[in-house]
């Protein structure tokens, strides 16, 4: 599924035709985002006309799965510091709801994303879905590890574009910060909005992306190529963790839509493909973590990690698997688990358990075969303050050093 959020345009017929043909579901927001919109007759009339036009244009596409009233406008009702009830918003509770019911009655309608219902607003209910942003510090920190959310329709993590892409829109890509520790103007102007003031709303994102590297590796490499690899590893591991946490939690957790696929302009962002269509490392990690029949490790519990199989197919799947603990050289690597397992249709189940030492930092390669095809994934234990060069060596050993946009030899 892709989500066309409230801050975007309504996509073309060609887009929806492609999704129809390739089995990609579309969550479609109406075009409102991150604000409290005017509750006056003139705006109501314009919104209603726009909504009816788009509903009639798109309703016959099989890919269209859900209409949502807006992006984060329910939450925006409290952003000013005054708590206001979004259920009094006639735009999403009346106008858009009525338009969908009249012109596309068979499809579900969600008033806002996240939706703050009357029960949620009164403190007696839980949100059906949420956007898991939080502090964006350590991706396995308390906020992400303990979040209660059945469906996440947004969550992401920053990763710098490749050196070759940075060179296309920055004069000095190697100079991220000035001597005072504040991001340079040309980095600030590519931090999600074209502003150069250090206190601009999105200026913090450059330092945020930098600190995420320091959190994972304990330091940021001075060489730009190495730093960008660190940043892309940080992003890739974070998004891999978010996806696998939700998949392992099936059916308690029912889905996740990560943010986001592709940059709309050159910037430092959560996208996994940059403005120039160069893939970041996260693209490849996510592709492996989203295989319909996939093996992954859950987080440690009682001194062991559980090898978990997730089968999203409507039929049973039998897999044969091997888990190898990498040690830098093939001749000293060790097979620690192997076997076969029947995975029930549309389910997640624990296959095997692997004891690990407290505080162990190790790279495990997970390989399996299903239906004549071979697949692989990985898991790194206690993944914080890790050694960059050791991690990079393990990636190279198992063929996962899929960095794009770097000069050969760097």
What does this structure look like?
With 410 residues, the chain is of the alpha/beta class. Among the domains are: 1-128, TIM Barrel (Alpha-Beta Barrel); 292-397, Immunoglobulin-like. The protein is built from twelve helices and 14 strands. The strands form four sheets. A four-stranded parallel sheet has the order 1-2-3-4. Strands 11-10-13-14 form a four-stranded antiparallel sheet.
- Which quaternary structure do these chains form? single chain
Please mark out the parts with pLDDT under 50 across 5 or more consecutive residues, or reply none: none
Given the structure, what is the number of helices?
Answer: 12
- Which homologous superfamily in CATH is the superfamily of the domain at 1-128? Glycosidases
> Do you know the CATH topology of the domain at 1-128?
TIM Barrel
- Percent helix, as a range, is 25-40%
Could you give the order of strands across the largest sheet?
Answer: 1-2-3-4
Q: How many strands in all?
A: 14
CATH class of the domain at 1-128: Alpha Beta
The helix/strand series, from N terminus to C terminus, equals EHEHEHHEHEHEHHHHEHEEEEEEEH
What's the rounded overall pLDDT mean?
96
In the CATH classification, which architecture of the domain at 1-128 applies? Alpha-Beta Barrel
